[in-house]
Amino acid sequence: MQKRTVQRGRPAGATTFDAELAQAFGAAVRALRTERGIAQEMLANLAGVERSHMGKVERGEHAPTLAIIFKIADALECSTAVLMTETETRLQGAGA
Hints:
mainly alpha; elongated; 5 helices
């Protein structure tokens, strides 16, 4: 029996991007940001990310990494749990 080689990474054509999840997270970020009266550019600066990237996250065009999620939560002065709870609420509303 021949040993199969293991290839690193995702299989060809596979993706981890979930548009519904990314849009719910982005909407949660936008809602918390506007609730706090913070401009998108200011939030990006506080989080240490490019403004254009923050816009893409808010529109659900990019799924942020775990590190970016923590930076955004810190910039919004909330816990990641609050951010995730808001995201889950939006996901449940979308599924209803």
